[in-house]
Amino acid sequence: LCFTFAGNGQLPSWFSVTSAAGAQVREMHSAGSLSYSRTFKIVVVGDSGVGKTSLTYCFCTGQWPSATQTTIGVDFRERVLDIDGEKIKVQLWDTAGQERFRKSMVQHYYRDAHAAVFVYDVSDVASFRSLPVWLEECRQNSLGPDTPRVLIGNKVDLLPSVTAASVMEQARHLAEVHGMPFHLCSARGGGGERVDAIFTALAVQLKRQGCGRGRRVAGSFKLTKAKADSDCKILLSCCHILSVMS
Ligand SMILES: Nc1nc2c(ncn2[C@@H]2O[C@H](COP(=O)(O)OP(=O)(O)OP(=O)(O)O)[C@@H](O)[C@H]2O)c(=O)[nH]1
């Protein structure tokens, strides 16, 4: 119900070479058998419907999701990138935008996160106005100004309006004030490359900052922290579903 390990062996294994901020990045869609030396945990937050699921799906699978459903609790999507010769798992935590599906789980989403991605919908001013709330939630969970953060204005494929343009200016300003890069993109039709570039650049930045060391031994599937993490997440999300249902 809650878990989508997109790309886990479901996708054609292809990769291409590109560069992000001067780094050599081999992009490979994650397969279950791929080994990696460390994991970057990135939380993706924003109002319900801004496109968090679509963006994370797009990055991890290279495809546009034919349909999405409101996220309950959290979804996990992963992709292994080869950055400067090191295989790194980029784990995107696609969190629920709706308050009733977050509740007491919030602190677990943020625990040990290396970066946060804030998303708003350029066609929905309210989703932009909510950003301070998401920034504050992150700050309260130890993802403050020292943590790499990115602001994304999604759905630029929708017709531009005067309001959208003025909101973009305000978004630029907000990003500047909070010291984070601001990107416009679309998870829909043809926007995949841009989405790729945004998340890849963030992963490169995390590598340069030395994040995620000492998490998992490459190729080892016995007693790994990743396995324990994964089991923990399943348990936590089950508890959350039960609490929502009751
Ligand atoms: N036109 C357009 N529609 C998009 C884009 N990204 C997402 N959508 C649509 O917006 C709707 C919501 O997308 P989701 O990805 O489910 O949004 P979300 O932020 O994950 O929502 P919650 O799970 O409720 O927090 C869906 O109908 C998507 O198809 C985009 O870039 N352009």
Task: Give me the secondary-structure topology.
Layout: E1 15-20, E2 23-28, E3 38-45, H1 52-61, E4 74-83, E5 86-95, H2 106-110, E6 115-121, H3 125-129, H4 131-140, E7 149-154, H5 162-177, E8 182-184, H6 192-208, H7 225-245
Parallel strand pairs: 3-5, 3-6, 6-7, 7-8
Antiparallel strand pairs: 1-2, 2-4, 4-5
Guanosine-5'-triphosphate binds next to helix 1.
Compact overview of the structure:
By secondary structure, this protein is of the alpha/beta class. The chain has seven helices and eight strands, in the order βββαββαβααβαβαα. The protein has helices spanning 52-61, 106-110, 125-129, 131-140, 162-177, 192-208, 225-245, and strands at 15-20, 23-28, 38-45, 74-83, 86-95, 115-121, 149-154, 182-184.
Beta strands, count: 8
Estimated structural class = alpha/beta
User: For the largest beta sheet, what order do the strands appear in spatially?
Assistant: 1-2-4-5-3-6-7-8
What is the N-to-C order of secondary-structure elements (H for helix, E for strand)? EEEHEEHEHHEHEHH
Mean pLDDT across residues: 80
Keywords: GTP-binding, Nucleotide-binding
Pfam family, one: Ras
InterPro entries: P-loop_NTPase, Small_GTP-bd, Small_GTPase
GO molecular function: GTP binding; GTPase activity
